[in-house]
Amino acid sequence: MGAEIIAATATKTVYRDGDKAIKVFHADFPKAEVLNEALITARVEETGGIKVPKVLEVGVFEGEWSITFEFIEGKTLEQLMEEHPDQIPDYMEKMVDLHLSVMAKQCPLLNKLKDKMARQISDIEELGDSTRYEMQTRLDSMPKHTKLCHGDFNPTNIIVKDDGTFYVIDWVHATQGNASADVARTYLLFCLKDQKKADMYMDLFCKKTGTAKKYVQSWLPIVAAAQLSKKRPEEAELLNQWANVFEYQ
Ligand SMILES: Nc1ncnc2c1ncn2[C@@H]1O[C@H](COP(=O)(O)OP(=O)(O)OP(=O)(O)O)[C@@H](O)[C@H]1O
Ligand SMILES: [Mg+2]
Fold first, then answer.
1. Which is the most buried residue in 73, 140, 193, 227, by most CB within 10 A?
2. Mean pLDDT (whole number) for 77-96
3. What topology is assigned to 74-248 in CATH?
4. What digits encode the pLDDT tens for the residues 49-60?
Protein backbone atom coordinates (compact mmCIF):
# COMPACT_ATOMS: atom_id res chain seq x y z
CA MET A 1 0.00 0.00 0.00
CA GLY A 2 1.36 3.45 -0.95
CA ALA A 3 1.74 6.18 1.64
CA GLU A 4 -0.71 9.10 1.40
CA ILE A 5 -0.11 12.60 2.80
CA ILE A 6 -2.40 13.41 5.75
CA ALA A 7 -0.83 16.69 6.93
CA ALA A 8 1.95 19.02 5.86
CA THR A 9 3.67 22.09 7.29
CA ALA A 10 6.71 24.08 6.14
CA THR A 11 9.06 21.74 8.00
CA LYS A 12 7.41 18.33 7.93
CA THR A 13 4.95 16.05 6.20
CA VAL A 14 2.83 13.36 7.85
CA TYR A 15 1.99 10.29 5.77
CA ARG A 16 -0.33 7.41 6.42
CA ASP A 17 0.89 3.98 5.43
CA GLY A 18 -1.67 1.39 6.48
CA ASP A 19 -1.73 1.27 10.27
CA LYS A 20 1.27 3.60 10.56
CA ALA A 21 1.61 7.39 10.62
CA ILE A 22 5.03 8.52 9.39
CA LYS A 23 6.16 12.02 10.34
CA VAL A 24 8.88 13.03 7.90
CA PHE A 25 11.08 16.03 8.73
CA HIS A 26 12.49 18.09 5.88
CA ALA A 27 16.17 17.77 5.12
CA ASP A 28 17.44 20.80 7.12
CA PHE A 29 15.42 19.92 10.25
CA PRO A 30 17.78 19.43 13.24
CA LYS A 31 18.40 15.73 13.87
CA ALA A 32 18.52 16.28 17.63
CA GLU A 33 14.97 17.65 17.57
CA VAL A 34 13.69 14.62 15.71
CA LEU A 35 15.33 12.24 18.18
CA ASN A 36 14.10 14.40 21.05
CA GLU A 37 10.50 14.14 19.83
CA ALA A 38 10.76 10.36 19.65
CA LEU A 39 12.31 10.22 23.14
CA ILE A 40 9.72 12.49 24.74
CA THR A 41 6.86 10.55 23.14
CA ALA A 42 8.36 7.27 24.36
CA ARG A 43 8.70 8.67 27.89
CA VAL A 44 5.05 9.75 27.88
CA GLU A 45 4.01 6.39 26.48
CA GLU A 46 5.88 4.66 29.33
CA THR A 47 4.15 6.84 31.91
CA GLY A 48 0.98 4.87 31.12
CA GLY A 49 -2.64 5.89 31.52
CA ILE A 50 -2.65 8.37 28.63
CA LYS A 51 -3.75 7.28 25.18
CA VAL A 52 -0.86 8.19 22.87
CA PRO A 53 0.17 6.68 19.53
CA LYS A 54 3.11 4.36 20.16
CA VAL A 55 6.47 5.20 18.61
CA LEU A 56 7.29 2.27 16.33
CA GLU A 57 10.45 3.36 14.58
CA VAL A 58 12.89 6.22 14.01
CA GLY A 59 14.58 6.21 10.65
CA VAL A 60 15.29 7.82 7.34
CA PHE A 61 12.61 8.03 4.65
CA GLU A 62 13.75 9.11 1.19
CA GLY A 63 16.80 10.79 2.70
CA GLU A 64 14.90 12.59 5.49
CA TRP A 65 14.57 11.78 9.19
CA SER A 66 11.26 10.29 10.18
CA ILE A 67 9.36 8.97 13.16
CA THR A 68 6.84 6.19 12.62
CA PHE A 69 3.88 6.12 15.00
CA GLU A 70 0.91 3.87 15.35
CA PHE A 71 -1.85 5.40 13.15
CA ILE A 72 -4.92 6.49 15.09
CA GLU A 73 -8.03 6.14 12.96
CA GLY A 74 -10.45 8.98 13.61
CA LYS A 75 -10.83 12.73 13.29
CA THR A 76 -9.01 15.53 15.04
CA LEU A 77 -11.05 17.36 17.63
CA GLU A 78 -10.64 20.46 15.45
CA GLN A 79 -12.39 18.69 12.55
CA LEU A 80 -15.17 17.52 14.84
CA MET A 81 -15.69 21.02 16.24
CA GLU A 82 -16.01 22.36 12.70
CA GLU A 83 -18.42 19.62 11.63
CA HIS A 84 -20.62 19.74 14.75
CA PRO A 85 -20.59 23.30 16.15
CA ASP A 86 -23.65 22.50 18.26
CA GLN A 87 -21.54 20.01 20.21
CA ILE A 88 -18.71 22.44 21.01
CA PRO A 89 -19.68 22.81 24.70
CA ASP A 90 -19.53 19.03 25.11
CA TYR A 91 -16.22 18.75 23.20
CA MET A 92 -14.73 21.54 25.35
CA GLU A 93 -15.74 19.76 28.51
CA LYS A 94 -14.13 16.54 27.28
CA MET A 95 -11.00 18.42 26.20
CA VAL A 96 -10.58 20.01 29.64
CA ASP A 97 -11.10 16.60 31.31
CA LEU A 98 -8.46 15.14 28.99
CA HIS A 99 -6.06 17.96 29.87
CA LEU A 100 -6.67 17.31 33.57
CA SER A 101 -5.96 13.60 33.10
CA VAL A 102 -2.62 14.49 31.47
CA MET A 103 -1.72 16.93 34.25
CA ALA A 104 -2.47 14.26 36.84
CA LYS A 105 0.59 12.35 35.60
CA GLN A 106 4.23 12.72 36.51
CA CYS A 107 7.02 12.16 34.05
CA PRO A 108 10.17 12.90 36.07
CA LEU A 109 12.68 12.49 33.24
CA LEU A 110 11.24 15.28 31.09
CA ASN A 111 12.80 18.74 31.09
CA LYS A 112 11.41 21.33 33.49
CA LEU A 113 8.94 23.77 31.95
CA LYS A 114 10.53 26.69 33.80
CA ASP A 115 14.00 25.91 32.44
CA LYS A 116 12.64 25.64 28.93
CA MET A 117 10.70 28.91 29.25
CA ALA A 118 13.73 30.72 30.68
CA ARG A 119 15.75 29.60 27.66
CA GLN A 120 13.01 30.61 25.23
CA ILE A 121 12.54 34.05 26.81
CA SER A 122 16.25 34.76 26.70
CA ASP A 123 16.21 33.93 22.98
CA ILE A 124 13.48 36.45 22.05
CA GLU A 125 15.56 39.50 21.22
CA GLU A 126 12.65 41.56 19.89
CA LEU A 127 11.22 41.85 23.42
CA GLY A 128 14.09 44.00 24.63
CA ASP A 129 16.43 43.48 27.58
CA SER A 130 14.36 45.03 30.34
CA THR A 131 11.13 43.17 29.45
CA ARG A 132 13.04 39.91 29.25
CA TYR A 133 14.67 40.57 32.61
CA GLU A 134 11.32 41.36 34.24
CA MET A 135 9.84 38.23 32.75
CA GLN A 136 12.64 36.04 34.03
CA THR A 137 12.09 37.50 37.50
CA ARG A 138 8.37 36.83 37.27
CA LEU A 139 9.03 33.30 36.00
CA ASP A 140 11.37 32.64 38.94
CA SER A 141 8.71 33.71 41.40
CA MET A 142 6.00 31.39 40.00
CA PRO A 143 5.28 28.19 41.95
CA LYS A 144 7.31 25.13 40.93
CA HIS A 145 5.24 22.08 40.03
CA THR A 146 6.04 18.79 38.32
CA LYS A 147 2.87 18.00 36.43
CA LEU A 148 3.00 16.58 32.94
CA CYS A 149 2.50 19.54 30.56
CA HIS A 150 1.84 18.83 26.87
CA GLY A 151 3.09 22.22 25.66
CA ASP A 152 0.86 22.44 22.56
CA PHE A 153 -2.48 21.15 23.84
CA ASN A 154 -5.02 22.18 21.18
CA PRO A 155 -7.74 20.46 19.11
CA THR A 156 -5.38 19.66 16.20
CA ASN A 157 -3.34 17.50 18.57
CA ILE A 158 -6.28 15.44 19.79
CA ILE A 159 -7.59 12.56 17.69
CA VAL A 160 -11.00 11.14 18.50
CA LYS A 161 -11.58 7.55 17.43
CA ASP A 162 -14.97 6.47 16.15
CA ASP A 163 -15.63 4.75 19.49
CA GLY A 164 -15.17 8.13 21.21
CA THR A 165 -11.70 7.47 22.70
CA PHE A 166 -9.50 10.58 22.82
CA TYR A 167 -5.81 10.26 21.86
CA VAL A 168 -3.22 12.98 22.43
CA ILE A 169 -0.50 13.35 19.79
CA ASP A 170 2.43 15.70 19.05
CA TRP A 171 4.32 15.52 22.36
CA VAL A 172 7.49 17.29 21.18
CA HIS A 173 6.92 20.29 23.50
CA ALA A 174 6.08 18.25 26.62
CA THR A 175 7.76 19.11 29.93
CA GLN A 176 7.03 18.82 33.64
CA GLY A 177 5.81 21.95 35.35
CA ASN A 178 2.90 24.14 36.29
CA ALA A 179 -0.52 23.07 34.97
CA SER A 180 -1.82 26.66 34.82
CA ALA A 181 1.02 27.57 32.46
CA ASP A 182 -0.07 24.76 30.16
CA VAL A 183 -3.68 25.99 30.34
CA ALA A 184 -2.52 29.55 29.61
CA ARG A 185 -0.84 28.18 26.49
CA THR A 186 -4.00 26.36 25.36
CA TYR A 187 -5.91 29.60 25.97
CA LEU A 188 -3.46 31.55 23.79
CA LEU A 189 -3.60 28.92 21.03
CA PHE A 190 -7.39 29.17 21.02
CA CYS A 191 -7.18 33.01 21.00
CA LEU A 192 -5.21 32.81 17.76
CA LYS A 193 -8.27 31.26 16.13
CA ASP A 194 -11.38 31.90 18.21
CA GLN A 195 -11.66 34.09 21.33
CA LYS A 196 -14.98 32.53 22.33
CA LYS A 197 -13.52 29.04 22.51
CA ALA A 198 -10.54 30.43 24.45
CA ASP A 199 -12.83 31.93 27.08
CA MET A 200 -14.89 28.75 27.29
CA TYR A 201 -11.73 26.75 27.91
CA MET A 202 -10.39 29.07 30.58
CA ASP A 203 -13.76 29.22 32.38
CA LEU A 204 -14.22 25.45 32.36
CA PHE A 205 -10.71 24.76 33.64
CA CYS A 206 -10.99 27.31 36.42
CA LYS A 207 -14.42 26.04 37.43
CA LYS A 208 -13.44 22.37 37.45
CA THR A 209 -10.23 22.91 39.41
CA GLY A 210 -11.17 25.85 41.63
CA THR A 211 -8.27 27.83 40.15
CA ALA A 212 -8.52 31.64 40.15
CA LYS A 213 -8.68 32.99 36.59
CA LYS A 214 -6.27 35.75 37.58
CA TYR A 215 -3.66 33.14 38.40
CA VAL A 216 -3.87 31.48 34.97
CA GLN A 217 -3.89 34.94 33.39
CA SER A 218 -0.70 35.87 35.21
CA TRP A 219 1.04 33.23 33.08
CA LEU A 220 -0.17 34.69 29.78
CA PRO A 221 2.62 37.20 29.03
CA ILE A 222 5.31 34.68 29.97
CA VAL A 223 3.74 31.90 27.93
CA ALA A 224 3.21 34.30 25.00
CA ALA A 225 6.88 35.24 25.09
CA ALA A 226 7.94 31.59 25.24
CA GLN A 227 5.57 30.71 22.41
CA LEU A 228 7.07 33.54 20.28
CA SER A 229 10.34 31.64 20.25
CA LYS A 230 8.65 28.96 18.09
CA LYS A 231 8.70 31.63 15.36
CA ARG A 232 5.38 30.73 13.78
CA PRO A 233 4.70 33.84 11.64
CA GLU A 234 0.91 33.48 11.91
CA GLU A 235 1.18 33.74 15.71
CA ALA A 236 3.63 36.63 15.97
CA GLU A 237 1.31 39.64 16.09
CA LEU A 238 -1.07 38.41 18.78
CA LEU A 239 1.69 36.88 20.88
CA ASN A 240 3.67 40.13 20.79
CA GLN A 241 0.61 41.96 22.09
CA TRP A 242 0.20 39.45 24.91
CA ALA A 243 3.87 39.46 25.79
CA ASN A 244 3.77 43.25 26.03
CA VAL A 245 0.69 43.25 28.31
CA PHE A 246 3.26 42.29 30.92
CA GLU A 247 4.48 45.85 31.24
CA TYR A 248 1.07 47.01 32.45
CA GLN A 249 0.37 44.24 34.95
N1 LIG B 1 -0.37 8.91 14.95
C2 LIG B 1 -1.22 9.57 14.18
N3 LIG B 1 -2.39 9.01 13.79
C4 LIG B 1 -3.24 9.68 12.99
N5 LIG B 1 -3.05 10.92 12.54
C6 LIG B 1 -1.92 11.55 12.89
C7 LIG B 1 -0.94 10.91 13.73
N8 LIG B 1 0.08 11.75 13.91
C9 LIG B 1 -0.24 12.87 13.23
N10 LIG B 1 -1.44 12.76 12.62
C11 LIG B 1 -2.11 13.80 11.80
O12 LIG B 1 -1.14 14.72 11.33
C13 LIG B 1 -1.36 16.02 11.87
C14 LIG B 1 -0.03 16.67 12.21
O15 LIG B 1 0.70 15.86 13.12
P16 LIG B 1 1.47 16.45 14.39
O17 LIG B 1 0.50 17.19 15.21
O18 LIG B 1 2.20 15.34 15.03
O19 LIG B 1 2.52 17.41 13.68
P20 LIG B 1 2.62 19.01 13.58
O21 LIG B 1 1.40 19.64 14.15
O22 LIG B 1 3.01 19.32 12.20
O23 LIG B 1 3.79 19.23 14.49
P24 LIG B 1 4.17 20.54 15.34
O25 LIG B 1 2.94 20.92 16.12
O26 LIG B 1 5.26 20.00 16.18
O27 LIG B 1 4.58 21.56 14.33
C28 LIG B 1 -2.29 15.82 13.07
O29 LIG B 1 -3.09 16.95 13.33
C30 LIG B 1 -3.10 14.60 12.61
O31 LIG B 1 -4.14 15.02 11.76
MG1 LIG C 1 0.29 19.16 15.82
1. 227
2. 98
3. Aminoglycoside 3'-phosphotransferase; Chain: A, domain 2 (3.90.1200)
4. 999 999 999 999
